[in-house]
Amino acid sequence: MIGSPSSKRVLVGTDGSVIARHAVEWAAAEAARRGAELTIVHVRPGSDLDAPRLPALPADTDIAFARCLAWLNEAVASAVQAAPGVEVNTALVRGDVTQTLIAASQHAELVVLGARNPNRITGLLPGALTVSLIAHGHCPVAVVRWAAPRTRPPIRGPVVLGVDGAHAEAAIEFAFDSAARRSTSLVVVHAWSRCLLNSRWHNTVENSATEVVDEVIRTVLTDRLACWQDKYPDTLVRMVTLQDKAVRSLVEQSRQAQLVVIGSRGRGGFSGLLLGSTSQAMLHRCACPVVVARAPR
């Protein structure tokens, strides 16, 4: 197990890269907002480094081990600089990367990974394994990406929430909480299509004017978010409802945001509008860090 059995922990992966360092800094700031400890982890294939009676390691393995320790030490320095008051722990583990992080997520309130470019997610995981962690992990997963790789992730702008008609409560809660902790506004985005609505509402919107459909959707969303608005009365909420594709709408909103939050159905796929390639596109095209909050099992 990585760390003590406490959920007041933000877990972040590192591989010694600049991108991973930015993810560590972002995770440290997030841990500070949450009053949580930060655990920085590096996972190498093989058996647990802490297992007793390990045979003597060959010289090249000693060098690799020292390099991993150096990465962790550098990450700690970056975390302390980004959030001086946060308690920072490290873990150097040998094992299956995905299973290690899935297990560790049981004792965390957020797992953070760094995104290298539109074709590869790094920090610890390639894209396919990141999706596996999102689908099978036990807490929300943040992928720290942004539009200009030579700069740091944005720290200004609203939190954007992508919401559909179902399985979004975990994302709604995370988004409201994140906006409140950042003292910023929340933009709620719902993109709709007549085809999808007709399948849900038995073709009753086929001949309705776009403005009428939009107003109905806004009313439904307002009712759905009312309890969260009551819980976070100081958070300004702005709704964006439009007839469009979800990914295009969210990517556009992400260009002015500091965080995007989307929901997940759970094992094997994303809910409602965030299906298949759309979910992958958000992980690869979002112009700011993106959090996927999976519905409880």
UniProtKB/TrEMBL annotation:
InterPro entries listed in its UniProt record: Rossmann-like_a/b/a_fold, Universal_stress_UspA, UspA
Highest taxon of source: Bacteria
Residues covered by the UspA domain: 8-145, 158-294
Family annotation (Gene3D superfamilies): HUPs (3.40.50.620)
The family this protein is said to belong to: Belongs to the universal stress protein A family.
The name this protein goes by in its record: UspA domain-containing protein
